[in-house]
Write a structure and sequence with these properties.
- The protein is of the alpha/beta class.
- Helix content is 38%, strand content 24%.
- It has helices spanning 2-8, 12-28, 34-47, 61-81, 192-201, 232-249, 271-275, 311-321, 330-338, 342-363, 381-384, 401-407, 410-430; strands at residues 84-90, 93-98, 107-114, 117-125, 143-150, 153-160, 165-171, 175-181, 210-215, 225-226, 230-231, 253-256, 280-287, 300-305, 372-378, 390-397.
- The strands form 4 sheets. A 6-stranded mixed β-sheet has the order 12-9-13-16-14-15, with helices on both faces. Strands 1-2-8-7 form a 4-stranded antiparallel β-sheet. A 4-stranded antiparallel β-sheet has the order 3-4-6-5, with no helix packed on it.
- A hairpin with a 2-residue loop joins strand 1 (84-90) and strand 2.
- Helix 6 crosses helix 13 (410-430).
Length: 432
């Protein structure tokens, strides 16, 4: 513009100065400046003298670009240090997303009673860049604190005047969910209108889900027998009754294969589940060990139906299948098991993992030494007829002196039932 003004005003001195600027700048920007050089040479010839073009002092573009790149590298390096991508609260859950796969070793749970109230504390292995500015809130919970406790530990603390019921589970290896159960009950001071609105917004995995629970054995079939004539059939029935109550409160439609101490044939136990079009079938049992191992074997196990036959699974299956009267040769049974529906086996496997994990979490609040017998697969005939995901739970060894005593304790029975209910919740949250 300055050059054009000089040309229009016939101001040769300014015209030359601006030509110098255009040529110098054009060279730095790699522009075509031949027409300006030609124009300036014309003035040189007219004046018959060499005109020296002084470079214009401008900011070096490369230096600016270098500074930007350095800043970006620093930001990327800083972000790389943080292993947690995001943390947010949604409905009655706190959702933590990680940058790489995680496992149950990444989380440690503890409970405390402080002057300010009851606290559920989750110490999570990882670092989160925005731990301090992030605020978490769940209706019905007094406060949720999030902070980077150490450079490698993120702490999430739930606090309330009442002892909260919280659980955790993993989704797709990179997501951890902390869930607060029954929070809608805490807001008793709010109006009915607000409470109804909160209930409508909150996702409840049990809504429209049908669960059939089978209390193993019964009647003339007492199942395994422990010290002081502790019967398996009594323990499993008590736990299923507690489980029925917990699930109904969470919105599930629940049916029991037996409502009293009566004998039911193994092959008939899944008939109810199929008639009611159940979403899952859960058979509850207590394990037993040979006389030589009654003081050694203990712990909780969860099984799902599969043609796989490990020695341990075969032993447990033989005990649970003993009351089955179906007449089938070994080769026929093997062929039948091999024909099982694979997607149903996969779903049953997922259900068993969630139930096992949550049973351990719940029972270890009472007894820290509860043994994890693991999730296993085996040929259990009580599960064969189920047309839906199904599992068989061994609550513990009724033959073990210490564990059988626990299995007859109502507090421990409730903890087992609550763990199973939380596992079912977890399964439906991930597989709606």
């Amino acid at each position: 513009m300055e050059y054009l003004k000089a040309v229009l005003n016939n101001d040769k001195a300014k015209e030359i100065d601006n030509l110098k600027i255009l040529i110098s700048t054009g060279k730095k920007l790699n522009k075509n400046i031949s027409k300006y050089e030609s124009e300036l040479n014309k003035y040189n010839k007219e004046n018959k003298k060499h005109i020296k073009i002084e470079p214009i002092k401008i900011e070096e573009p490369k230096k600016i670009e270098k500074a930007k790149i350095s800043k970006k590298i620093k930001e990327d390096t800083d972000n790389y240090k943080y292993t947690i991508k995001s943390v947010e609260s949604r409905n009655n859950m706190v959702i933590i997303d990680f940058k790489s796969p995680v496992s149950k070793n990444f989380i440690k749970f503890s409970e405390e009673k402080a002057k300010s109230g009851f606290q559920d504390i989750y110490d999570i292995k990882g670092s989160f860049k925005d731990a301090h500015p992030t605020k978490l809130k769940i209706d019905g919970v007094k406060q949720i604190v999030i902070k980077q406790e150490t450079p490698t530990t993120l702490r999430i603390l739930f606090e309330d005047n009442k002892n909260l019921k919280t659980i955790y589970f993993f989704v797709n290896n990179k997501r951890l969910i902390l869930k607060v159960l029954d929070v809608e009950k805490e807001n008793k001071t709010t109006t009915n209108k607000i409470v109804k609105k909160a209930k409508k917004v909150q996702y409840r995995p049990g809504l429209n889900k049908v669960v059939v629970i089978d209390a193993g054995h019964g009647g003339k079939d007492v199942g395994a027998v422990g010290p002081n004539k502790r019967y398996e059939k009594i323990v499993v029935f008590e736990v299923t009754k507690y489980l029925e109550s917990y699930l109904k409160k969470r919105g599930y439609k629940v049916y029991l294969t037996r409502n009293k101490d009566r004998f039911i044939k193994v092959r008939n136990r899944t008939i109810l589940a199929n008639e009611k079009k159940a979403d899952i079938f859960v058979s509850v049992h207590a394990n037993a060990a040979h006389k030589s191992k009654v003081n050694k074997l203990n712990g909780i196990e969860t099984f799902f139906l599969s043609p796989a036959r490990s020695e341990r699974a075969k032993r447990v299956a033989a005990k649970e299948n003993s009351s089955d009267v179906r007449n089938m040769s070994g080769s026929t049974k093997k062929a039948f098991l091999e024909s099982l529906n694979r997607p149903r086996i996969t779903a049953s496997h997922k259900l068993s993992i969630d139930i096992q994990r949550n049973m351990l979490f719940s029972t270890r609040k009472i007894h820290k030494d509860v043994i994890d017998g693991g999730v296993r697969e085996g040929p259990f005939w009580v599960l064969v007829g189920a047309q839906m995901p199904s599992v068989l739970i061994e609550l513990g060894y009724i033959t073990h002196p210490k564990e059988s005593k626990r299995l007859y304790n109502s507090k421990y029975q409730k903890a087992l039932a609550e763990g199973i209910a939380n596992g079912i919740d977890s399964y439906f949250l991930k597989n709606p």
